[in-house]
Amino acid sequence: MIDRRTALAGVAAMFGAGLFAPLARAAQVAATELISDGPPSVAVFNPPQRTLMTALSERVIPTTDTPGAIAAGVPAFIEKLLADWAAPDDRIPILAGLDAIEARCQQDYKIAATKATPAQHDALLTLAMNGEIQGGKPFFDAFRQMVIAGYYTSEIGITQEREYLPVPGEYNGAFPYSQVNKVYSA
Known about the structure:
The chain has 186 residues and is an all-alpha fold. It has helices spanning 4-15, 21-30, 47-60, 74-84, 88-109, 118-129, 136-152, 155-161; strands at 163-164, 184-185. It contains 8 helices and 2 strands, in the order ααααααααββ. Helix 1 (4-15) crosses helix 2, helix 5 crosses helix 7 and helix 6 crosses helix 7 (136-152).
C-alpha cells in the first residue's frame, strides 16, 4: 500500500515550480524523515476559521459518488501542514484569505461565512480565484493545492477516488478509453 510520505513526494512533480512552500518542504522531507501523524504542534485556526476552512475544502473536492475532502481528513491535513511545515509567513495568505472571505460573505450575504450555503461558498471561492477579493488569488492557489495534496495523499484519495494497483497489469495499447473508469495510482 502506498503511504502519505510516498504520495507527498509525487506532489512536487504534480504542481512543479508553483508548489506552495509548506507542501514543498513536506514533500522534500517526506523522502528522508517520518512525518508525524499526531496532532498539529500549534493551533493555526480559531474555531470560526477552522469551520470555514473545513466547509471550503469540501467545496474544492465535494462528496459525490466518492467521499469528499472532509471524509478524507483534508482539514486536519491542512492544519497539520500549516502548523508543522509552514513558516509563520506561509500562513499569512491562508489566514488573510479566510478573513477576507468572511468579510465578503458578511458584505454580500449578511451572514457569517460559517453559515453560508454551499452555493454561497462556491461563489466566494470563485471571487477569490478570480482575484476579486483582497488577497483572494494567493489564498485560492495555495488553498487549492493543499486540498488536492491532502486528498490525493489520503487513503480515500488513493484507494477510492483512484484505483490503487501496486503492480500494474499488462500493457494494452488498444484498451478502449471508454472502458477506463478510474485513474490509477501506484
